[in-house]
Write a structure and sequence with these properties.
322 residues, eleven-stranded mixed β-sheet, alpha/beta, 11 strands, globular
């Protein structure tokens, strides 16, 4: 009864159905206010699931802001652990915060990560007049003299923008990542401005943050951190094809309660795969600057498990957590 009351209290929207039939519909929690990335994930994926027949009723969308996703995570773990009709929007911020124990003792293994089907690709960018023409040029130079280089990003120290160059530099042979200098600014635009102005030597961020600067010719993108080149930006090589096995960006995905059955886990993975394969989702990605990134079921859970281990260790190495 308590759970049903909470669902009725915080539900912000019911897609297409009246309250009578919505009571038995699946629910997607967006752990933020309307208008952000988690809200987009719930609304777009939920709508498309219904439109293509993956679910037989529209999916309720509940906005539950607080604690950078921590309020929703705690709610799912403590009150909805066996709810087979519940999905929750997640992103790279979710896994980073879990790795850094930002959810007050909650851990990633208390839920099941069911899949991701799109990504705002990570990028490494230098000013147009930078001497570094390739990702290897930049990384090798930083490895040789870390004190001479500073990366700028739109997240705080220890955030995911900070982690991207650390992952790359580890694969380039840097053994002490505490030597890497990073400045966290208020958004990717400020980070790019610092790099264009010569105050930092490179910018680490997401594709959506650099499109206008690429068009104006102010910056050069050395790498996109996806498994394949991004449609519309085919001239930018991936880090993988340049020999640095890093796929990182702001992925859009879902988790579900830990206590549901394996059959429920596979059911939601299958539904998410149907969305990924749909023309409707491809249109949504194009309209919102996302690139393909499809990992569902056990493959995605394994990806998250490895990512959290890596981020946790790097966070300890640079002193963000103990």
């Amino acid at each position: 009864m308590k759970t049903r009351f909470m669902k009725a209290l915080v539900t912000s929207v019911v897609l297409g159905l009246g309250a009578t039939s919505a009571a038995s519909a699946a629910e997607c929690i967006a752990p933020a206010n309307p208008g952000g990335g988690w809200d987009f994930t719930c609304r777009q994926i939920g709508k498309i699931m219904f439109d293509i027949g993956a679910v037989d009723q529209p999916i309720q969308v509940t906005n539950m802001a607080g604690g950078g996703g921590g309020l929703a995570f705690t709610h799912v773990v403590s009150e909805r652990d066996d709810d087979a009709d519940l999905i929750v929007a997640a992103s790279s911020a979710t896994s980073t915060r879990l790795a850094q124990n930002a959810y007050a003792g909650m851990t990633a293994d208390q839920v099941r990560f069911v899949g991701a089907i799109g990504i705002d690709p990570g990028v490494i960018v230098v000013a147009a007049d930078s001497p570094h023409q390739t990702l290897a040029d930049l990384l090798n130079a930083v490895v040789a003299d870390p004190s001479a280089y500073t990366f700028a990003g739109g997240s705080a120290v220890g955030g995911f923008d900070h982690m991207k160059p650390l992952m790359l530099l580890q694969r380039a042979g840097l053994t002490d990542i505490t030597k890497v200098k990073y400045i966290g600014l208020d958004g990717g635009g400020d980070a790019i401005t610092q790099t264009i102005g010569g105050f930092t030597q490179a910018m680490t961020g997401d594709m959506s943050e650099i499109v206008g600067f690429l068009a104006s010719g102010d910056v050069r993108a050395l790498a996109v951190l996806t498994s394949e080149r991004v449609p519309g930006f085919e001239s930018i090589p991936t880090a993988v094809e340049q020999g640095f096995d890093v796929v990182a960006g702001n992925w859009r995905g879902l988790y579900i309660p830990r206590g549901v059955s394996d059959e429920t886990f596979q059911m939601w993975a299958g539904r998410l795969q149907q969305v990924a394969d749909s023309a409707e989702w491809k249109e949504a990605m194009t309209a919102n600057g996302l690139a393909p990134f499809t990992l569902v079921g056990n493959d995605f859970q394994g990806y998250i498990d490895n990512l959290i281990v890596e981020i946790r260790q790097m966070s300890k190495d640079i002193g963000v957590i103990q």
